[in-house]
Amino acid sequence: MTAGIVAWGVYLPHWRLERSAISAELGVAAGQGRRSVASYDEDAITMAVEAARRALRGPRPYEPAQLLFSTPAPVYLDKTNATTLHAALGLSPRVGAYDLVGSVRSGWAAMAQAAMVSSHVPTMAVVSDLRSGLAGSVDEIHGGDGAAALLFGPEGAVAEILGRASVTEEVLDRWRVPGESASRLWEERFGEEVYVPLASQVCSAALADAGLAPGDVDRLIVTGLHARAVRSAARRLGVPAKRIADCRLDTVGNLGAAQAGFCLADALEQADPGQVLVLVSLADGADAVVLRTTASLLEAQRARHDGGVAPVAALAAGGDVVSYATFATWRGRLLREPPRRPDPERPDAPAMWRREAWKYGFTASRCCQCGFRHLPPTQTCLKCHAVGSMEPERLADVAGTVATYTVDHLSFSLSPPVVGAVIDFDGGGRYRGEMTDVDPGALRIGTRVEMAFRCVSVAQGVHNYFWKARPMAQGANRAMEGASHGE
Amino acid sequence: MASRGIRDQVAIVGMGCTAFGERWDRGTDELLTEAATQCLASADVALADVDAFWLGTMGSGQSGLTLSKPLKIDYKPVSRLENYCATGSEAFRNSCYAVACGAYDLAMAIGVEKLKDSGYSGLTGIRQVGDGTNPTLSSPAAFSFIVPAYAEKYGVDPEQLKEVLSRIAWKNHANGARNERAQFRKEVSLETIAASPLVAGALGVFDCSGVSDGAAAALVCRAEDAHRYTDAPLYVKGLSFVAGPAAGAIDPSYDYTTFEEVVRAAADAYHQAGIVDPRAELAMAEVHDCFTPTELVLMEDLGFAERGAAWKDVLAGTFDRDGELPVNPDGGLKSFGHPIGASGLRMLFECWLQLRRQAPPERQIATVTEGGRSLGLTHNLGGGPGECVSFVGIVGSEPSA
After folding, report:
1. pLDDT of residue A474
2. Other CB atoms within 10 Å distance of the CB of residue A205
3. Angle between the B158-176 and B146-154 helix axes, to the nearest 10 degrees?
4. Which residues of B83-117 are buried (b: 16+ CB within 10 A; e: fewer)?
């Protein structure tokens, strides 16, 4: 009966940009390693959906009763972004879904608030970020794209919260006005002078709150966009260097608002029961939390493995590499000649609303009379012609097989060619749609796929979300098939 | 309840067809006027003699005014209809029923499409209100799904299949080179076709029909009145049109190697016309070769070849202009492009020329002149594999005994 973190999920995009490619293209010293890159059809919402799906996969004691979404890269203002996550996850209408968007520090707020209310209201915090900046900037070189989701609840925790502390500081070390895509940074030395003492302050206070000392810490995680301050602070908190977590900056990059959640999830996957974790975040002040893993952690780790959820270590290893030109195109900074085809059209609000379960939840219908499964959902059965005798069936987490496929060089896409495929789902049902994160040359009849929530197009500011198929990750195959047979 | 057909009840007594192509100097009005004028002249009748009109166009105009304004039709019924790529054939089919039932004596079916003004590559749909979940794949992409599926099912090597598809394009271009109305009037070598830049899947530019402007028209009357207009009418033997439940798009048992809608439409049309063995009985067929794999599969769906064997017949030249059953002797969509409202009537125009032995000698088919066959087939399909509408029509130069 322990309150705290109940489940976690991480999403990193398939694509990577080698820092050497930035060096080569721009003639700057971008250093070694690579960063994660969201694909042309991904944004803060789609990555958040993927992280949350991973947190909700497999056995868990309860559904979230509240959803908090935070990102410094919101898709919409005025309109709530979290409602799209809510719909894509197929959550009950009674689950409240709210945004905390704008600043990097809001990401911490989402997690902290979720933790605080979770003894009464099981709450999931999802934090997502796309780090970009001017060409050759620190943010572009050392940033990364990704999302993390943490479900907090009153019992069954894999990690309990022992102590916490915060300190707030009005300081202009980075800023970005609405509408701009790149942040501006003050001189690096200044931020270091400000942040390092704040880090010591919150870390000491949080440990005191927990009744522990730096020597009790098994894993120290220090996060923040100010790299120099983070490195410096970590060394001065009294925790031995070998217990300081590697934030995977060389393979993933700095995920900004999502970094704290990402690193905590990473630590949970590597931790043993009974270990003390300290998470510190430096942004407009400093925040710290002290956690202790519980005996439930082992079971959760095993369930994730059995459920086919790829571990952070595997995600961090990454997929295919993109060129700098492709990266710049995907981020909208390099405008390419389109095909002589009509521009994408804006979907219509009433139709999207009416079809929410299909469009966002990928919910098909199954005939109650003969069992035939229809995608998209219909009222009339193809096989037995029964009318109005259908039950909804969510297929977002059901695997499928490619029946036939094509590579479309004619249709409009920010990243041509469009890869199309006919997908037959395990347990019945067929859908013809787009594929993503795919090497067309490796596609075959029989390729196993899973569904991914993506932004299909943007027209008149409307982000048109729907599901695409992607090749199933190696190793996930067997587990997903097992899961689908069990439904 | 049955599909009875109107075999030999209706005759085509006049036709017109514009040149198809990039008609930058002609708008929809001028194309319609050109086709209608040619059509009326061929039957030596005046516009005032026509009692009713059926206009087919996908997107080049709405309502009967699209035709009545440019032709200055004096207060007659003009129906405007659309049925995807079968639009022109649908105008024809409905006009036939109008005269067959006795409502009118003389009716005109006319189709037009002005595609080139849009500036787009390939065809585009008409915007519909939607939730944004419809796949955005282009038409060539949808039809290219056939290629890997056909290769897999019948064990045809992909390179061999590419050769088959290239040969279909080669044949149709060779026929179009002999047709003054065609958009593309040059023969194209197999090597050029095979090496053309890819558009979708295995389909290169030369595996796709072009984009063009054009119009075509037909005059129909009851069969017993035909000789008042011409000594050589064509008789309507069968007219079939099918819209299915779009099963292939949602049913995993569909394997992308056939068009069920075409199979059903063909069976109905053959039944109406009394045809048992189409490959042996037809003198020619004008089929909807929007993309080369479409024509390949159509050879099987229309009963011209055994299942899984059409690719061998293609390589053997069975459907060449001088083959056992000439298919698309006018050059097909491949040489004409596909002005949607006009295509079905353009196909009928080739039957009009060939079956009445009025085709130019360089492309007159021997199945008529030497083989003594008198039946021609026209076919359209609109949509894509698994989800389409299909038209099959049979016309003949001889009334049944």
Report:
1. 56
2. 18
3. 120
4. bbbbbbbbbbbbbbbbbbeeebbbbbbbbbbbbbe
pLDDT recorded at residue A319: 85
Structure tokens of B337? 């492009």
- Please name the residues in contact with A129: beta carbons below 8 A apart, sequence gap of 6 or more: A44, A71, A72, A73, A104, A107, A145, A146, A147, A255, A256, A257, A258, A259
**Residue-by-residue DSSP string for B215-266:** EEEEEEEEGGGGGGT-SS-EEEEEEEEEE---GGGT-TT--SS--HHHHHHH
> Which one of B173, B288, B338, B379 is the catalytic residue?
B338
Let me know: does B14 contact B109? Beta carbons within 8 Å: no
Q: Do B141 and A411 touch (CB under 8 A)?
A: yes
Q: Give A282's strand partners.
A: A224, A286
CB contact under 8 A, B200 and A409: yes
Identified catalytic residue from B17, B85, B221, B388: B85
Separation in Å, CA B256 to CA A272, A409, B47, B143: 52, 21, 46, 9
**Residue B351 designated active-site:** no
B139 within 8 A of B338, measured Cβ to Cβ: no
Find tokens 């060409």 and name the residue. Answer: A135
What distance, in Å, lies between the first and last C-alpha atoms of chain B?
A: 26
Burial class (CB in 10 A: 0-12, 13-18, 19+), B23: buried
pTM score, two decimals? Answer: 0.94
Give me A138's structure tokens: 């620190």
Of the candidates A382, A410, A434, the beta carbon closest to that of B140 is on: A410
What confidence tens digit (pLDDT) does each residue in A105-127 have?
999 999 999 999 999 999 999 99
Strands B234-243 and B387-396: antiparallel
Which of B201, B254, B258, B202 lies closest to A431 in space, CA to CA?
Answer: B254
Q: Which tokens belong to A280?
A: 């510190």
Whether B288 sits among the annotated catalytic residues: the reply is no
Mean pLDDT in residue range A257-270: 98
Structure tokens at A330: 């995907």
- Placement of tokens 């970005």 in the chain: A176
**Residue B140's closest chain A neighbor by CA?**
A408
Q: Residue A411's pLDDT is what? A: 86
Residues of A in contact with B148 (CB under 8 A): 404-405, 445
Give the C-alpha separation, A366 to B50, whole Å. Answer: 53
> Phi first, then psi: what are they for A480, rounded to 5°?
-65, -40
Name residue A37's beta-bridge partners: A15
